[in-house]
C-alpha cells in the first residue's frame, strides 16, 4: 500500500484545542467559499439512489460533512454520528468527507466492515489527491489563503488574528499538516486493497477519481448492497 500513516500536528494531544478549532473553522469556511465539496455530489447521489437517509460520520478535523450539507436535498433525512463512538445501527447512506485518511488501515477497515456487515451503502470522499497540482495547492495556496483571509473567517476570533499575524502558528501548522495529509491519502488502489479482505456476500465496492472542475481530482469509495444497485 502506497499510503503511509504519518502523524500530524493537529492530531497530537498537546496541540491546543482552540488552535485546532481555529484551523477547522478556517478549512470549513474556505471549502464553503470555493464550493470544493460540490464535486462530491455525483458520488453521493449514486449512494442515495435507493434511500433518502444519510448518516454523517463526523470527526471535527478538517472540512467535513458540514461543507457538503448545503448541496443535499432538504428532503434527505440527516443523522450524525461521531467517529469516536461509531456504530452502524442506523439505516441510510454512511458518508465520510475528508476524514478517511485520518484512520490507520486497521481502524479504516474495521469501520468499513461494520457498515458492510449491516448491508448499508456508504460513500467516502476526499477532496485531496497526490497530484502535483494538489501538492502546490496544499503547501502554497492554502497557507497563503490563511494569511490573506484570517480577518474574514466566520466566526470572527481575535485569537485567530493573533496566531496568524503575530505568532504565525496557524499558517505554519496548516502548511505542515496539509503536506503530511497527502501521504496519508488512500488512493483508489489503496482503497481496493483496504476492502479486499472484507467478505460480505452481496456487497460491492467501487473506488476511483473524478474531476473536481478546477483541474484536480477527488477520490471516492462507494460501497453498495447488491439489491441497492
What does this protein look like?
- The chain has seven helices and six strands, in the order ααβββαβααααββ.
- With 229 residues, it is of the alpha/beta class.
- It has a single domain (9-228), classed as Rossmann fold.
- The chain has a six-stranded mixed sheet with strand order 2-1-3-4-6-5, sandwiched between helices.
- Strand 3 (93-97), helix 3 (105-117) and strand 4 (122-126) form a beta-alpha-beta unit.
- Helix 4 (132-149) runs antiparallel to helix 6.
- The longest helix is centred in the first third of the chain and has 18 residues, at 17-34.
Sequence-ordered SSE layout with sheet pairings:
Layout: H1 17-34, H2 41-47, E1 53-58, E2 77-82, E3 93-97, H3 105-117, E4 122-126, H4 132-149, H5 158-166, H6 169-184, H7 188-195, E5 203-211, E6 217-225
Parallel strand pairs: 1-2, 1-3, 3-4
Antiparallel strand pairs: 4-6, 5-6
SSE string, helices as H and strands as E:
HHEEEHEHHHHEE
Task: Flag low-confidence runs.
Answer: none
CATH class: Alpha Beta
Structural class: alpha/beta
Spatial strand sequence of the major β-sheet: 2-1-3-4-6-5
Can you tell me the CATH topology?
Rossmann fold
Brief characterization of the structure:
This protein is α/β, with parallel strands linked by helices and 229 residues long. The protein has a single domain (9-228), classed as 3-Layer(aba) Sandwich (Rossmann fold), CATH 3.40.50.
